[in-house]
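Bit of a strange request maybe. I'm writing a small parser for structure token strings and I need a real example to test against, not something I typed by hand. Could someone generate the tokens for this chain?
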Amino acid sequence: MATRKLFRDFVVFLSLSLLYAIPAFAEHPPRAVVIDSATAVRYMALGDSLAAGYKAIPATDGYVYRLYRDEVIAPISKELFCNAGVPGATSADVLNHQVPQALADFQPDVITLSVGGNDLLHILAGADAGTVLTQFQTNLTGILTALRTGLPQAKIYIGNLYTVPQIPGADQIVPVFNQILAQVATAFGVPVVDLYSAFLGRPELLLINQPGAAPDEVHPTNAGYRVMAYQFARVIRPDRRVNH
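Reply from user aminoacidic:
Good idea to test on real output. This should exercise your parser:
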């Protein structure tokens, strides 16, 4: 009997403890942070699936989100962030759809840009390489002209493309593409983030080298996205490195 009473008293004590503990937690909700939109740094990512963090697990481990989360652009409490990257977007899509959003709506102070990979995929589908590269050059010129004209104070950073050696012709066409990208970017004073060199000889950075990957898989692994974030951070803010 004494044992039963002791157990019963313990149950009552535990129940009362939990009953009184619950309101205590409710009295202290996480404090909300109000960002002043008038003074905040506005960061916008433009581009394709690389900007979107496509196939990163989770997607918020993509390089754009890492730049935001690791406060490479600005402290989170003082930053407004928008990712306009869309899987499958070509340079024409960025020019015709994403740039107008930046100019009319968000008006960013800092822009990162990943574009061109889907243009090159048209070559694999049989399009003429010279035509594709010329159109990319025209579209990129249009993108940077519009951004420089509409947002003259914005800081813009563009990443070049890494190669995927398993895809036929990639090792030949990607360096030519990167040369065109660099020429256009330099003409507008836009720094180029060198992803090409960072990925060379590092198969662990590409999903195509993982078991079961499709033969035309072009996206990075999580490790690859970390390297992308690191390379962007080196250019954007050398004193603020992200892990890679």
